[in-house]
Amino acid sequence: MSAALRIASLVPSVTELLVALGLGPHLIARTGFCIHPAAALADVPKVGGTKDVRLDALRHLAPSHVVVNVDENRLETVEALRAWGVRVVVTHPCSPQDVHPLIRQLVEAFAPGSGTPDVVHQRAAAIDAELSAELALTAPKDEAPVPVLYLVWRSPWMTVARDTYISRLLACVGWQTRPDAVGGPHGAARYPAVLGSEPWLTEVEQVLLSSEPFAFTQAHVAEAQALCPRARVSLVDGEALSWYGVRTAPGLRYLRQLLG
Predict the structure, then answer these.
(1) Helix (H, G, I), strand (E, B) or coil at 246
(2) Which of 67, 117, 172, 207 could form a disulfide with 111 if both were Cys (CB 3.0 to 4.6 A apart)?
């Protein structure tokens, strides 16, 4: 293993992808939300959360590279990292298709120093091929899009803008998220609040209650039903629908199962 390559990942999805690529031995730090795969990460130190990184602890671990994400991490954290002179790898996949360039980005950043570049390239090709196959199998029906409300938070209710990874994943099966809003490249507008008085709520046909970041349960179904009286309300696996990388292909299969 190359002593020079010391990766800190502050992005749960990317942490899991790095392990899948064979780069787990180079991980020297993670967040408390980087929990998959558990066995491979058991001895990797935690340095706080995605939004509240303990910079002193991270700096003590002396990473050569830190992986961050536009949605997951704070700009001030990234600015502090850059001030150290550490290499910051910025990720921002906003669709299932964006996972292809994300894989290439990580391979280009880390394979040369991994000591086993052939293994990394082979694993990347396998993940990439599986994703291509699932994308080919997952296409919306030749019908009008189904209006969907995907809820990620309660008090206040919060959903996803149409230029987020979650919304574009749902669009692969013809589910069109409400509201008709674009959040832009970063910021709170990517996850808009829902007041409960919006006229479009009566048009929603599916309400999806995510298991994360807010852990919706059966106890919240009635509240969501009141929000959208015409809709079918379902509890869904938030990891399957919001974690990109190695979970994107299984996430597409999961979506097809939800449709069935």
Answers:
(1) coil
(2) 117
| pLDDT surpasses 60 at 250 | yes
Give 63-72 pLDDT, tens digit per residue.
Answer: 999 999 999 9
Q: Is residue 1 part of a domain?
A: no
d(CA 31, CA 35) in angstroms, rounded, equals 8
pLDDT score for 4: 85
**How many domains in the chain?**
2
Question: Are 13 and 122 part of one and the same domain?
Answer: yes
CATH code: domain of residue 246 = 3.40.50.1980
Q: CA separation (Å) from 129 to 100, 133, 135, 173, 240?
A: 9, 6, 10, 20, 19
Q: What is the mean pLDDT of residues 128-138?
A: 97
Q: Is residue 184 part of a domain?
A: yes
Given a cut of 50, whether residue 1 has pLDDT beyond it is no
Determine contact, residues 41/15, Cβ cutoff 8 Å: yes
User: Do 129 and 176 reside in the same domain of the chain?
Assistant: no
How far is residue 211's CA from residue 74's CA, in Å, rounded to a whole number?
Answer: 23
Find the domain containing 239 and state its range. 146-259
Q: How far is CA 7 from CA 22, 50, 217, in A?
A: 13, 15, 36
Residues 14, 130: one domain? Answer: yes
- % of the chain beyond a pLDDT of 70: 99
Name the amino acid, one letter, at 193.
A
Q: Would the pLDDT of 246 be above 70?
A: yes
